[in-house]
Fold each of these.
Amino acid sequence: MPAASIRARARAEMINEIKAIARRHLAAEGANLSLRAVARDMGMVSSAIYRYFPSRDELLTALIVDGYHALGDAVQAGDAEVTDRTDLRGRWLAACHAVRRWALAQPAEYALLFGSPVPGYAAPQETTVAAVRTPTVLIGILADGFATGALSDPGDLPGPVQADLAAVRDGFFPGVPEALLSRGATGWMSCFGAVSFELFGQLDGLIQAREEYFDHQMRRVADLIGLPG
């Protein structure tokens, strides 16, 4: 193997190890990451880690991008499990349950993506492409229904809202009517709101049958956004 390839592989392995240790810090301490602490756990001098991540923010960005992609993979796989692609409601429920399963399995990463903002950190544009993967699946279910005629354009929106959603549609969801996109956004926010309430403790002492309650909620949301079934 050429020396350049060996160096590239070694660097990739080191980056993966740094991120793995940083995720353990997330689970134990939240998003208050310290490059020095990560370096110490790796047995490195603190200056060495800066060759891989020049700042805490760059490490956070890498973890956020990885998290969005991992969530996107899980949601795409959940949607793909429904073999009848015309079963819009079944696809919606499968995708929403995939969001919940991933969040419960990766609570620290979910909190990094959807919890309180990290003080002093501003997410760069590169996180947007990864972040849009999950809503693309959820809204894509409605888009498929519109393309086949199973769903229709639900109609009017307030003028300023229509203008905003037209810009979003042109950037990310071409061909989806603004009012249908609005319904998809309502479903997306309802799904993540339900997951966040469970994960961050708002249901503690209130709801014991968590999975059944979530399924009930997502079925009601499916009614709200007009999915047949």
Amino acid sequence: MKSSNLLKPYLALFIGALSVSTSAILVKAAHAPASIIAFYRLFFTVLFMTPFFVKVKYIQELQMISKRDWVFSILSGALLAFHFIFWFESLNFTSVASSVVLVTLQPLFAFIGGYVFFKEKLTVGAVLSALLAIVGCVIISWGDFQVSGKALFGDALALFACVMVTGYWLLGQALRKRLSLMTYTYIVYGISTLTLLLYVLVLRFPLFSYRKIDWICFLLLAIVPTLLGHSLMNWSVKWVSAATVSMSILFEPVGAVILAYLLLGEVVQPSQLIGGIFILTGIGTYLWGENRKGTLPVQESS
């Protein structure tokens, strides 16, 4: 890349990280049930992706997918659906700061998953990073417990959401070795949309009786954090290292907290600030160590 164009991928990465940090703000702004918000976010995303997906090469790839990969895709889509349900619901009980920082723990949950399911070796750096993040979680949870039991419940939901998205991410790493990005995301988003539709129908939530502001939030969630944010990050990885893209996950809670303060008037509590520093330091240390080993994959944002 020419030196004059060197800043373009970094600018794209910054805009992408800022875009995904709007997710929590848009969820907070909507007043629909969490599962409805999640359903329409993915429904509109799939709708916008369809004209780009119906090309010969993607249709041919779709026909060649193995039964095993279909099973993995269905499971991945279901995990993504419940990640959104748990995370969006958490924002009804706790602050943007606590929820987004706790969901950002996904790299460390992936490290635990890799150890449990794939027998990956433990390193001293990874263990220390995990301990730092755990201390941060305790600090945030203790502070929220002092605020209210509801805030602590919201923290627990955010952690469940983190577990769900980690499972989705681990399955995705296997699927992406055999499927193109467009085919993989279209299938998984589609399955996730169907899972959420079934969920809201079982719970008998209305599909259409929502306010104008809710529909605006649904559309913006599909366009800004999902299509714009993720697309720019995936484009950037062609020009910058996976480590750089993965480290950009650390900007998401920072951007979300700033936007929550400016737009929602949420003030960061001392326990959230201290706990957040511990968590982000732990994650940053872990990602830096993985980068040195050369095994760092691109992380998925919210």
